[in-house]
Amino acid sequence: MDFSVITNNLSYFLLGAWPHGPLGGAALTLVLSVCSALASGVLGLVFGVALAMTHGAAHQALVLFLGFFRAIPVLMLIFWTYFLLPIVFGFNVPGVGTVIVALSLIGGSYLAHSVYAGIRSLPPGQWQAAAALGLGRVQALRYVILPQALPIMLPSFLNQWIALIKDSSLAYVIGVGELSFVATQVSNREMVYPTEIFLFVALLYFLICSSLELGAGAIARRYGTAAKPT
Amino acid sequence: MIVIENVSKWYGKTRVLDHCSTRIAQGEVVVVCGPSGSGKSTLIKTINGLEPFDEGRIVVNGVSVGAPGTNLPKLRAHVGMVFQSFELFPHLTVIENLALAQVVVLGRSRDEARTRGQGYLARVGLDGFADRLPAQLSGGQQQRVAIARALCMDPVCMLFDEPTSALDPEMVGEVLDVMVELAGEGMTMVCVTHEMGFARKVADRVIFMDQGAILDDCAGEAFFGDPDGRPERARQFLARVLPH
C-alpha cells in the first residue's frame, strides 16, 4: 500500500478546492452535517410537539405528512428538490442547499417520532399534576414535560444525526463536492489506489461520527442530573 | 363551596359515575370511601376538571366546571390536588417544585415564590430539604412536599386522591398528621382514602360509593357510630376495613 496518494492530496480531501475554489471535502461534509443536524433537530422538535398536542384529523394529517418523508429514499428527495423545484418555482436551488433541505426534512420526520415517543413515555400523572397546579398545556410542556423528555430523546437524536452525516455522502449524485465526491474524483484520477483512498475516507467518517458521539456523551454527563428518574 | 349535581360519566358503555350529587360547604372535611373501582378517584378528579363528565353539573366557588367557556387552568390554580403517586416533578428540586406554578401561573416573583415555599416546607416539617431532588426523599417526605406545593397556591379547597395508598406503612402517619393539622385550620378538604382512623378523627361527613353511585352521605359520627343506619353495602365495607 502506498499512502503518499493521501498526503499528496490531503488538502483536497479535507477542504476541496478551497481557498482557490468552493469549499469541499471533509469540511463540506461537516458543513452539510451541522446545518442539517440543526435544522432537523428544530423540525423534529416542532413536529414532535405538534404530534403530541394534536388529536383526530389534524394529528392524522401530520402523521401522513411525516410518513411521506420517512418513506421516500434520501436520494430521491435530493433528486426531486434539485430537478423539480426549479421547474415548479422557476428558480435554481444550489446543490448544497438542496442537500441540506432534503436531509433536514427526512431527519426531522424521523426525529419528530422520537420526540413524540419521548413525550409519551412520561407518566400521564405528570401532565395531570401540572394541570392541577393551573398550568396550561403549553406551560406544562415547556416547564414539566420537555425538560424530562429531552434527555430521554438524546440517544435517538444522536442516532439520527450519525445517520445523517453518512447520508450526506449522497450529495455526490448532484455534484456537491463533499468528502465522498472528492474521494471518487481522486480515485478516478489516480486509478490504482482505491484501497488507500477509501480506507482514509472511512477513517474520516469514523472520526467525524465518533467525535459527535463523544461530544454528546460529555453533554449528557454535564447535564446528567436532569435525566435521573424519580 | 362545591356543588355536585346529578353527575354521570361513561367509559364507552361502562357507567363509571351514576347520578352523583352532593354539596361540600366551606371548611368542611369530607372523606370519600368505597371499594376499588367504585368511582371515588374519578369523582374527585371531576371537581377540578381533570376528568370530564358526560351529564350533570359541578360548581366550584361559583364557577361551573363543565361549562364550555370555563377557564380550567384558572380554576385549578386555586383547587389544590394531591395524588396517590405524589407526582413531584423529578427534574426540579423541592423548592423549584414549590415555586414553579406560583411563578408561571400566579405571576409571583421568584423570590416571593421561594420564600412562601420555604414557609410551607417548614409547616410540613421539611425545613432544610429545599435543595434536594424528589428522588432523594422518602415517599412520605415526597407526599408532604406535594401537599406543600398545593398549599403554596393559596387553594380555596384541597382534593386528596388516596394520598397514603402508595406509602410504606411507617410513613402513612407523617402524611396524615399534616392532613389532620390542615383540617384543624379550617381548610375545605375532600379526601379519597382507605384510612378509616383518619376519617373517624377528622371527617365532618363521609360519602360511601359503590359502582359509580353515592350510596351513603352522612355525618362522620353517624357513619362510624350507627352501623345499623347504613346501607347494606356500606356495612359490609366497614366490617372489612375497620380493625376488629
TrEMBL record, chain A:
Descriptive protein name: Amino acid ABC transporter permease
Gene3D superfamilies per record: MetI-like
Keyword Transmembrane assigned: yes
Molecular function GO terms recorded: transmembrane transporter activity
A single BP term in Gene Ontology: amino acid transport
GO CC terms, sorted: ATP-binding cassette (ABC) transporter complex
Major subcellular location class: membrane
Family from the record: Belongs to the binding-protein-dependent transport system permease family. HisMQ subfamily.
Family matches, as Pfam families: BPD_transp_1
SUPFAM superfamilies xref list: MetI-like (SSF161098)
Membrane topology category: Multi-pass membrane protein
InterPro entries associated with the record: AA_ABC_transptr_permease_3TM, ArtM/GltK/GlnP/TcyL/YhdX-like, MetI-like, MetI-like_sf
Swiss-Prot/TrEMBL keywords: Cell membrane, Membrane, Transmembrane, Transmembrane helix, Transport
Organism of derivation: Pseudothauera nasutitermitis
Location of the ABC transmembrane type-1 domain: 26-216
Protein localization: Cell inner membrane; Cell membrane
TM annotation in the entry: 23-50, 62-83, 95-119, 140-162, 197-220
From TrEMBL, chain B:
Domain ABC transporter: 2-236
One Pfam short name: ABC_tran
Example of a GO MF term: ATP binding
InterPro entries documented for this protein: AAA+_ATPase, ABC_ATPase_HisP-typ, ABC_transporter-like_ATP-bd, ABC_transporter-like_CS, MetN_ABC_transporter-like, P-loop_NTPase
Signal peptide: none
CDD domains (alphabetical): ABC_HisP_GlnQ
Keyword Nucleotide-binding: yes
Keyword Magnesium in annotation: no
Location, primary (coarse class): membrane
Alphabetically ordered keywords of this record: Amino-acid transport, ATP-binding, Cell membrane, Membrane, Nucleotide-binding, Transport
Gene Ontology cellular-component terms listed: plasma membrane
Lipid bilayer topology: Peripheral membrane protein
Subcellular compartments: Cell membrane
Family in the record: Belongs to the ABC transporter superfamily.
Protein name per Swiss-Prot or TrEMBL: Amino acid ABC transporter ATP-binding protein
Native organism: Pseudothauera nasutitermitis
Lineage, highest ranks first: Bacteria, Pseudomonadati, Pseudomonadota, Betaproteobacteria, Rhodocyclales
